[in-house]
Amino acid sequence: MDRFSFLNAAHTQFFADLYDQYTQNPDSVEPSWRAFFQGFDFGLESASEVDPVIQLADFSSSEQNNSLVSEKLQKEFNVLKLIDGYRTRGHLFTKTNPVRERRTYAPDLAIENFGLSSADLDTVFDAAKVIGKQPSTLRQILNHLQSMYCQHIGIEYMHMENPIFVNWVQERINANDNQPNFNAEQKKHILGKLNEAVSFENFLHTKYVGQKRFSLEGGESLIPALDAVIESAAEKGVEHFVMGMAHRGRLNTLANIFGKPTQDIFSEFDGKDYDKEYFDGDVKYHLGLTSERKTSSGKKININLAPNPSHLETVGAVIEGITRAKQDKYFPEDFSKVLPIAVHGDAAVAGQGIVYEIIQMSQLDGYKTGGTIHIVINNQVGFTTNYLDARSSTYCTDIAKVTLSPVLHVNADDSEAVVYAMLFALDFRMTFGRDVFIDLLGYRKYGHNEGDEPRFTQPVLYKIIAKHRNPRDIYAEKLISDGIVDAAYITKIENEYKAKLDENLQASRKKDLTIIKPFMQEEWKGFVQVSDDEMLKKVDTQFDKKKLDAILETISTLPSDKKFINKITKIVSDRKVMYENDTIDWGTAEALAYGTLLTEGYDVRLSGQDVERGTFSHRHAVVKVEDSEEEVVLLDALKDKKGKFNVFNSFLSEYGVLGFDYGYALANPNALTIWEAQFGDFSNGAQIMIDQYISCGEDKWNNQNGIVMLLPHGYEGQGAEHSSARMERYLQLCARHNMYVADCTTPANFFHLLRRQMKTKFRKPLVVFSPKSLLRHPLCVSTREELYNGQFQETIDDLSVDKKKVKTVVFCTGKFYYDILAERENLGRNDVALVRIEQLFPLPVEQLKAIIASYPNADDYVWAQEEPKNMGAYSFMLMNFDLVPWRLASLKAYAAPAAGSHTRDRRRHADAIRMVFDKNLFR
Predict the structure, then answer these.
(1) How far apart are alpha carbons 38 and 29 in whole angstroms?
(2) Which residues pair with 710 in a beta bridge?
(3) Nearest CA among 836, 623, 674, 860 for reference residue 744
(4) Which of 225, 338, 750, 812 sits at 20 to 30 Å (Cα–Cα) from 208?
(5) Are 883 and 848 contacting, i.e. CB atoms less than 8 angstroms apart?
(6) Residue 270, CA distances (Å) to 22, 302, 504, 505, 574 in order
(7) pLDDT greater at residue 655 or residue 17
């Protein structure tokens, strides 16, 4: 289709107005129109002196042979269309695939498709000025376009709406034909890193035959590219480098970029046990590393490769959180100093939905990191699935268009082009603080792993790959032909590197154990790893009375010079009334907990859907001025505030945001990092983060993490999706010393729970089943004294009964306590004691023993829960609570957590309560 056919139908005045706008400010018009007008101006230089608007209008008329428009001018426009064609579609016709012919796309870029012919090849066109050249022949223009857009680097950038970004790309590639130009020493350095990459894989392949290693073979040029970006980034002021990648090429990257001792890698291949009992470890291609690297110019840079599971792309969210934590902590005024790099697989970046979530976070205030370099190791196969079955889009990188990010497609066999593309990406990120993508088009030498047979599913492709030379040999031949090195030099560097590997292999086999260094250990100085016994020890969370009074004054006083809606005025002022009356509610206690930590120098980050106000309108951490919607954060006004308070409404994501916040907590143990679900059951949208990171990260990777999850939970007749936070799933994950699980029943206990999270010398994930109706329950209140001088209570005994008269002891947790309490009052049963278990894991067994012993005449013990029998804490208690024989009071087993009918739901709820008081009832 003729891209300029619209000119024939448009109104003359439209052209006149748009041209007038262009003459006043060329950047104010859309790039293709700007190119059009530039070409028109060039054409005018050889045309008669007539008002340009008249000429433009005449050109747009149906009389194409108008005497004022010469054939030369028409050809100029056709050349402009040709240039635009290369800019927008040139990437489809590149030489970027090292082992396959490219798919064909129509129409192609033949000059005939743009109203030109071979007769025009030696005609000089002013349109060359658009690509930064003096007037040139069409042949010269074509050569330039072919070099820029259709060689080993294809670039997609015309989809970017900002003309500044587009111009930056165009000026850059116009200047050098989009081709690398390294000196001899730089080329030898690239060869050296390529040699390390290739030799490392060859060594492992011969020494550990058949063992999984997920080799980088077919994409070895990644190693010199990563090396180049670290060196260059350090020169541009980057001080921290945070990287996430899947398993393919990870060992090579650890050894040749991060400097992991190959002795340690060989010990992992040999399957030796670890040096610590409490640590179970993970497979070698999942482990992370932090190291300090000195660049060739002497600059130091902190480099981090985050550990990750086999669940592809999950680590992308984690590294963004790590990056943001480092930026907030060290460089709050200059995010560019911490550089995140995400390495993807082609099948995963196109198929895993979390990638979309991460990309959507990239420009949001609470989650942006100043731009990420995304590198796709494109094997063209996902396990056994061909790329044509792996996506509907043209490219695996088409997700980049969500944020209008540029994409460079590069032939992985051309190592110089790969390094050049990486440096191009770095410059774009450092200039604009935005994401950029590199599609490293290579192949996978073996199957999905080294023991897999790829010829079952891709026999033709793997015949080609079997004969294909590796990138080092290809590049070595080029440098030999250019006279930069000789064959002896190649042999020398290969033998030297192999000799080092041999030496380290022998040394590793003299060691009995494998040592795994904790990730980011510098950030965790002063913290210790502990067992569940230590987790159960009491922690001093008291707080000075006068200081707490001052915090209350701050959070209960709105600025007098601003107008707020009446409801928020009352909510805020009521905090002071409740405080003075010793009826402190949940929201006030929570705000006070944050305030106390801020004055003690801890940061607080609260993130999730609607967390600024709170799903149930209890928090109001951010309040809005009525007329302007100006945001006011009362905690920011604390006089003695030493920490930073950040609260962010997230976009509608659980998976990506929880992963981000997990990463944030991983990089800053002195920040109380909280993720809150809108409703607790929505957390299962982030199940992979919970299963693969939060519950077992310390056990697998030796990493502590203090992430807090607030999961609203409680049966109040809101149906299957707004009742249960799926307590049973979290309790099933609990073992040894991996995390805390709590279900508090008082504001004061929640206050101390949050404070305990930061006051220990260790960090554990904390899962809290937080309340909904209890936020405003008249009995769910606390006193000032309970905040000043209290502490977190793992259990709360029943102090309202005469223990000698008690026959039935009921153990329960959370909101159900208040429901049972109301029924006990109604029945007048003074022989029933209600014991609250506020911390379900680690279960406070010794406290429970003491409580049981304090009821000398009890002979009936009950575990009561509002959840169905197959849900809630029942199965956990069945496995872990065997101090006395006990019976269950609950709903019977159901598939859905709760009934949709309010009547049915309340009837079942009442039945469970009746079972508490009647041991003869059983469901």
Answers:
(1) 12
(2) 676, 768
(3) 836
(4) 225
(5) yes
(6) 68, 29, 13, 10, 65
(7) 655
Q: Cα torsion for 547, 550, 556, 558, to the nearest 10°?
A: -140
pLDDT, residue 59, reads 47
Grade residue 32 by pLDDT with cuts at 50, 70 and 90: low
Q: How far apart are CA 641 and CA 427, in angstroms?
A: 38
Residue 289: CB atoms within 10 A of its CB come to 23
Task: Tell whether the torsion through CA atoms of 902, 903, 905 and 906 is positive or negative.
Answer: positive
Instruction: Yes or no: say if 558 and 572 are a contact pair by the CB < 8 Å rule.
Output: yes
Q: How far apart are CA 47 and CA 65, in angstroms?
A: 14
715-756 tens-digit pLDDT: 999 999 999 999 999 999 999 999 999 999 999 999 999 999
pLDDT at position 136 = 96
Q: Which residue has 């707490």 as its token pair?
A: 548
Is residue 255 within 8 Å of 200, Cβ to Cβ? yes
Q: 471: which strand partners?
A: none
Confirm if 152 and 95 have CB atoms less than 8 A apart.
yes
Question: What is the bridge-based pairing of β-strands 860-868 and 808-812?
Answer: parallel
Confidence at residue 67, expressed as pLDDT on a 0 to 100 scale: 43
- Alpha-helical runs (H) found in 177-278: 184-207, 222-235, 250-256, 262-269
Q: Which residues contact 507 (CB under 8 A, 6 or more apart)?
A: 263
Q: Is residue 246 helix, strand or coil?
A: coil
Q: What is the mean pLDDT of the chain?
A: 92
Pairing of strands 832-837, 887-891: unpaired
What angle is formed at CA 236 by the lines to CA 231 and CA 242, rounded to 5 degrees? 65
The pair of three-digit structure tokens given for residue 762, joined into one six-digit string:
């260790």
- State pLDDT tens for residues 617-639: 999 999 999 999 999 999 999 99
DSSP character at residue 585? -
Q: Which residues contact 216 (CB under 8 A, 6 or more apart)?
A: 197, 201, 222, 223, 248, 249, 252, 253, 377
Instruction: Tell me the CA end-to-end span of the chain in Å, nearest whole number.
Output: 72
In sequence order, the 6+-apart residues with CB closer than 8 A to the CB of 156 are: 91, 395, 400, 406, 407, 408, 409
Contacts of 282 by beta carbon, 8 Å cutoff, 6+ apart: 307, 309, 700, 701
Spatial CA neighbour of 705 closest among 742, 750, 672, 749: 672
Q: What distance in Å separates the CA atoms of residue 379 and residue 377, rounded to the nearest whole number?
A: 6
- SS3 letters across 63-77: CCCCCCCCHHHHHHH
Q: What angle in degrees, to the nearest 10, is found between the helix axes of 487-508 and 471-481?
A: 150
**Residue-wise DSSP of 254-293:** HHHTS---HHHHHHHHTTPPBS-TT-----GGG--EEEEE
Burial of 211 (0-12, 13-18, 19+ CB in 10 A): middle
Q: What element of type H or E holds 23?
A: helix 12-24
Closest CA to 605 of 649, 640, 572: 649
CA-angle at 305, arms to 302 and 307, nearest 5°? 140
Q: Which residues contact 103 (CB under 8 A, 6 or more apart)?
A: none
Closest residue by Cα to residue 891 from 724, 776, 731: 724
Residue among 887, 643, 625, 842 nearest 740 (CA): 842
Q: Rounded to whole angstroms, how far apart are CA atoms 389 and 653?
A: 27
Q: Read off the pLDDT of residues 865-896 as tens digits, 9 standing for 90 and up.
A: 999 999 999 999 999 999 999 999 999 999 99
CA dihedral 587, 591, 592, 598 (to 10 degrees): 160
- Angstrom CA distances, 140 to 129, 144, 169, stand at 12, 6, 21
Residue 97 token pair? 């695939």
